[in-house]
Protein 1
Amino acid sequence: MSNMIFCYHCHAQHPREQMRLVVSKTGKRWRCIMSIEAAKKTRAEREAFGRKVSAENKADARARLKARTAVSAF
Ligand SMILES: [Zn+2]
């Protein structure tokens, strides 16, 4: 079929309307929107997780600091 394009990400062919031309270090490549969206979602999840962990670490550090301050007051 002429409207099928090879997707470098899936190593498979997808219909032309599902493909996006992306520019990478090695040049222009066709990649399907499914893999782009999946990567975006993964990154968002990772960032959300990173934010949560750093917020917890900060809260933990604050709690430790408070505890130390309370002890040294005596
Ligand atoms: Zn694909």
Note: The radius of gyration is 23 Å.
Protein 2
Amino acid sequence: MSTGYHEPVMLHQCIDGLLWQENGIYVDATFGGGGHSREILNRMESKGQLIAFDQDEDALKNTIQDLHFQLVHGNFRFIKHYLRYLGVHQVHGILADLGVSSFQLDVDTKGFSFSRGNTFDMRMNQQATRSALDIVNHESEENLVNIFSTYGEVRNSKTLAKAILTARELKPISNTHEFLNCVEPLAMGNKARYLAQVFQAIRIKVNDEIGALQDFLAAGVDMLIPGGRLVVLTYHSIEDRIVKHFIRNGKTEFSMPSDHYDSKADWTLRPINKKPIVANDEEIRRNSRARSAKLRIAEKK
Ligand SMILES: C[S@@+](CC[C@H](N)C(=O)[O-])C[C@H]1O[C@@H](n2cnc3c(N)ncnc32)[C@H](O)[C@@H]1O
């Protein structure tokens, strides 16, 4: 079901993978427009409980009035602390639908998209200290190279970092348009794809998305009861690699070569699907965002 704010991706596949005990306690770590949460609540029975998280204040406006539901404004990397604070020590399942919502991408004031608005911000949490402008104006050349190559897999990251330094020495970059002026002439191959990679890299850095995901996976798995489910939707290869390794062997380092993911016999998670589940053609036609989505489901032994 679409809320206008965001259309949930692989809704039924996610909830089928998550919900194995209709009276259990579940977590939706990325509430957004609440599409996944609503479906969980619809399918729960009278003793079921759902606790959801979002770090973006705008998402809180979509909250659901339901006695079985609580929404926490916070970063999912602290899931364990928040749940303990709520008196919850174990849960039956955790869902994370990573990245940004359609609302966040489309709204002019957040600056997530190179084709929307002129505010180069990119903070999911409005209280976070560093925006995209801080990153491009203050990170060292070496750090910028690292950000673009690691988080965006941008091939000419050195040239790009140098161009940013040259531009900001003349005058600090003050909006999306000025940033695009330095980046666009360097686009390699498909321009929209190149810009998407550059913007993705900055977004990941601004929100420390890799650090948050690593902390979340480690803390989340501790909170699951035996038989509990971890269900994660990712939208780019860096995140998918982290989730895949974590499910196979508990390691979250994302720099490992992609074939290095032996499963460990004593590791506490068991993958339910060996290959990631992807959206069908009909869903992709309806919702282009589903195109890059990969769904992984694991069970705690
Ligand atoms: C793809 S959207 C989720 C959409 C949701 N499943 C739905 O059906 O509407 C991702 C949401 O997760 C939130 N988010 C991303 N990283 C987060 C984090 N580390 N902690 C809390 N919320 C986060 C974003 O603000 C965004 O609202």
Note: Residues 122 and 203 are 6 Å apart (CA to CA).
